[in-house]
Amino acid sequence: MPHTTEWNVRLRLSEDEGTTKAQVVLETGTTSLTGRGTAQRAPGDKDVPEIGDEFAVGRALRDLGDKLLSTAAHDVEAVGAAPEPRTSPSYGWPV
Question: Chunked in runs of 10, what are the mean pLDDT values of the chain (95 residues)?
Answer without folding.
Answer: 95 92 97 97 89 97 97 89 62 59
